[in-house]
Design brief:
Order of helices and strands: EEEEEHHHHHEEHHHHEEEHHEEHHHH
Shape: elongated
CATH superfamily of the largest domain: Intergrase catalytic core
CATH architecture of the largest domain: Orthogonal Bundle
CATH class of the largest domain: Mainly Alpha
Number of helices: 15
Length: about 450
């Protein structure tokens, strides 16, 4: 009678362990090897996992997390142990599946499992994938100051990451780890942004766009650092300060705001955008806050709401210029407008009412500075309303600290960036105020 093959379940459990490639240099990273015996043949396979011998426990075949270790070291060693455990579990599971079929584990199958584990880990540790994951969780997470993210900032993150991903696709060697975000990377990425062309007319990014993109990437890397994804903090050394004369933005004078408030609209959407813009011109509200006016408390001539960006409570007096609008929308509900559509519509309305003064300014594209003249309406966005409010209230002669409390600025430096009145305008208003108070001769 033919002898039946040995039942795999009657065999001894699979034996495997992990050793180090070298143990002499205690502080030098060395690779961890998987050692497994198959059919009385010992096989050693490099796992690509690395650790210093001083952190290795030769009895448990795992990293030792005891002793005086800082948080980053403990987390790193814990992660290595988790990878070892996952690899061992995968091998045990494969071995059990083979045992059911009466088959044996082979060296080629072991190498395949190890390679798949390495690829999975590389994918999980891909810095661009990690950064995208941080962005997706942005609105649910809490930052260093204990605040949750907002939708508009998430969109800004995604735009900057998209530019980084485009850059990465054209690199000869793709970004493989957070350590690649070094001095060479920031220099190369900046050059890429300056040379990038887009659209039918092959436009180049302005210096403002490039600086803001670098700022956002730095912010994302800071988030990765705070989330213990990396110990690389080179991004802190990168300077992203825009020269004061490189960002020439406009504001609307009160007579221009009046013209805009009276402009004829062709549909409900234009009317709602116009009214929301005028409200912002006299409240200094960001568009994200204009969108949540239905949640605000409005009584006794004051709007009280928590700012979407700072999460702080502001109380804004309702000036007479917008009191009828506020009363009207309190009855029917404030419109919730789309930011991108609103910024396009407000340009159309500004052009329609004749806010077309030619503005001459410096423009830096692709590393080249040119002088361009554009009609003022092309430079108007919803943020112009906030800038206009701050500037016009200051020109009226209200104390700076009052205007800052309304706009929510915490520092005079930040407040100054919103001041767009020329020195000639300010001096003229100052002289008018002095004459009104009879402080100087008429």
């Amino acid at each position: 009678m033919k002898q039946m093959p040995l039942n795999r379940k009657e065999e001894k459990d699979l034996k495997l362990r992990f050793n180090l490639k070298q143990v002499c240099e205690e502080d030098k990273l060395t690779q961890i090897m998987l050692v497994i015996t198959i059919n009385k043949r010992r096989i050693r396979i490099y796992t690509k996992l690395r650790v210093e011998p001083k952190f290795w426990n030769h009895e448990t075949y795992r990293c030792s997390q005891t002793g005086r270790l800082n948080l980053r070291e403990r987390l790193r060693l814990k992660h290595i142990n988790e990878q070892i455990d996952n690899l061992a579990m995968s091998l045990y599971e494969i071995d059990e599946k083979l045992a059911i079929r009466g088959e044996y584990l082979s060296a080629s199958i072991v190498r395949q499992v190890v390679n798949e584990s390495q690829k999975k880990e590389e994918l999980l540790q891909n810095p661009l994938i990690c950064l995208r994951g941080l962005i997706e969780e942005y609105e649910k997470s809490v930052n260093r100051k204990g605040r949750r993210g907002i939708e508009s900032t998430k969109a800004t993150y995604l735009t900057a990451l998209g530019r980084l991903e485009d850059y990465n696709r054209q690199r000869k060697v793709p970004i493989g780890s957070f350590d690649d975000f070094n001095k060479r990377f920031f220099a190369d990425f900046t050059n890429y942004l300056y040379g990038y062309k887009y659209g039918k007319n092959e436009k180049r990014y302005t210096q403002n766009t490039i600086i803001n993109t670098l700022k956002v990437i730095k912010n994302l890397l800071h988030r990765a650092y705070d989330n213990e994804m990396t110990t690389n903090n080179y991004f802190l050394k990168v300077q992203t300060t825009l020269p004061s004369n490189s960002s020439e933005q406009v504001y609307l004078q009160e007579k221009e705001i009046l013209k805009l408030s009276l402009v004829k609209t062709e549909n409900d959407q234009e009317r709602e955008v116009r009214d929301a813009f005028v409200i912002a011109c006299y409240t200094a509200l960001r568009i994200s806050d204009v969108r949540q006016l239905n949640k605000a408390t409005i009584r006794k001539g004051v709007i009280s709401l928590y700012q979407n960006k700072t999460k702080e409570l502001v109380e804004i007096p309702i000036l007479k210029e917008i009191a009828p609008l506020i009363a009207h929308y309190q009855q029917i509900g404030f419109p919730v407008i789309d930011k991108m559509k609103a910024n396009k519509i407000i340009k159309v309305l500004a052009a329609r009412c004749g806010i077309n003064e030619m503005i001459t300014r410096k423009e830096l594209r692709g590393g080249e500075t040119t002088i361009v003249a554009v009609p003022k309406y092309e430079l108007i966005s919803f943020h112009t309303a906030r800038r206009s409010c701050v500037t016009n209230l200051y020109k009226r002669g209200y104390p700076i600290n009052y205007v800052m409390s309304l706009s929510g600025h915490r520092s005079f430096q930040a407040f100054q960036r919103y001041m767009r009145a020329s020195s000639k305008e300010l001096m003229s208003d100052f002289v008018h105020l002095l004459r009104k108070e009879k402080a100087i001769l008429p």
